Amino acid sequence: MKDLNEFATLSYKGKEIQLPVITGSEGETAFDASDLRKTTGCVMLDKSLMNTAVCLSSITYVNGEKGILHYRGIPVEMLVEKCSFVEVAYLLVHGALPTKEQKSTFSHLLNVNSLMHEDMRHFFDHSPCGAHPMHILSTMINALAVFYPNVDQLSLKEDIELSTARLISVVRTMAAFAYKKSIGEPVVYPRHDLSYCANFLNMMFDSPVAPYEINDDAVRILNSLLILHADHEQNCSTTTVRTIGSAQVNLYATISAGISALSGPLHGGANQEVVAMFRHIQEIGSIEKFFNQVKDKNCATKLMGFGHRVYKTFDPRAKIIKKKCHEFLEKMNIHDPLLDIAREVEEAALKDDYFIERNLYPNVDFYSGIVYRALGIPESMFTVMFALARLPGWIAHWQEMIGSKTKIVRPRQIYVGKSLKEL
Ligand code: SDX
């Protein structure tokens, strides 16, 4: 961050105040309003924080106008080609890609922490079959604090490393167990000899009567998807994590809150809604008819997987996922009619003034569900996949917030209710 010794002048009722101007590493500029209320008695109103930077962060940079995304200064386009998800998780949490030795230590930590406390399994055994895996996941992560209570006093670097590894690893086990529970099959335990993604696929699809054969292409594309979802600066769930964490809530409860925020259909829940939308378009047999529903302000219908608060051009992740999705389905000789529909919808929307005028482009959720379908992952698990991927991002932001001695987040409001004199 550069302090340019520049100021923005705010004048009101004959008084002028100087707001310091700060500039970030990539040239973003902010007016520092930290002393605004103290000096003017006024606050800024910025509903949904659309124009407000809530922190300084060194983790991820997003440029919505140019469609740029990089983690710790490295473009995602490079990371997705050259790294594994575990290496990117290390990058986000520790600030640099791991050396060979650091990767071996981190992988060992992930392995020895991949088992869930056996008593936690009873929760799965007694949860209703139809429970949505995101609700199970959020609950189970919160329950980790019951089984590992020292998380309430995380201060030592080693404790944070251990809790971080436990979260990244055991959540993968919980996700697979939740799936097995939902289909009435026995759970499959993690194996020490498999990589992070291969282990997940094996826990999901191996069974005593039909051994699962690890497919390298499936492992590779799952690594890519998890890398592309691993962080995205101050999105709704990450801001939730930083807000909850600022009250010094333990890491597990903080991440559980992040999962709940992600489950919303306008956020991480969109990937499941996108596939439901493709099936709906398939049923009505007309993209134009569907677009008319979207344009009808009396309808709450949205073109799911399109639009973004920050990207006003292509989401770089959507471009990569689209390409990898096509390559993977071709390699696996899978023909998914929903991919044809996805392509037709994208092509039609990119030519339609309604979407063009509103800068609506495909986002990370538009094609991801097609890949998950090709991997055999059910729609109810799509947002769980997003949560698995976002864990390192959330943890990195939590650590950054704790490390920067952030004060408890407590914004102001403008009261517009009844005033006392009217009572
Ligand atoms: C993620 O923040 C992040 O970084 C999130 C994320 C991450 O990695 O963490 O990138 C992941 O959440 C991606 C987004 C997934 N959600 C969806 O795909 C749901 C569909 N998209 C929309 O709900 C919407 O685009 C949002 C919520 C993503 C963003 O909404 P904004 O920024 O609040 O935009 P807006 O609602 O102010 O829209 C401006 C206009 C409005 O029309 P008008 O009132 O001007 O006529 O665009 C319209 C909106 O109605 N619009 C849409 C639309 N998105 C916006 N119209 C139809 N379909 C859409 N998808």
Structure description:
The chain has about 425 residues and is mainly α. Helix content is about 50%, strand content about 10%. The chain contains 18 helices and 6 strands. The strands form 2 sheets. It has a 3-stranded antiparallel β-sheet with strand order 1-2-3. The chain has a 3-stranded antiparallel β-sheet with strand order 4-5-6. Helix 7 packs parallel to helix 8 and helix 9 packs across helix 18. It is globular and about 80 Å long. The mean pLDDT is about 95. The structure holds s-citryldethia Coenzyme A (SDX). The site of s-citryldethia Coenzyme A has 21 residues, from loops.
- Major sheet, described briefly? 3 strands, antiparallel
- Uncertain spans, ≥5 residues at pLDDT below 50? none
Order of helices and strands: EEEHEEEHHHHHHHHHHHHHHHHH
Bound molecules: s-citryldethia Coenzyme A
Query: In terms of structural class, how would the helical and strand content be classed?
Result: mainly alpha
Question: What global shape is seen?
Answer: globular
**Residue share in helix:** 40-55%
User: Which strand order spans the largest sheet, edge to edge or round the barrel?
Assistant: 1-2-3
Overall pLDDT confidence: 94
What would you say about this model in short?
The chain is built from 18 helices and six strands.
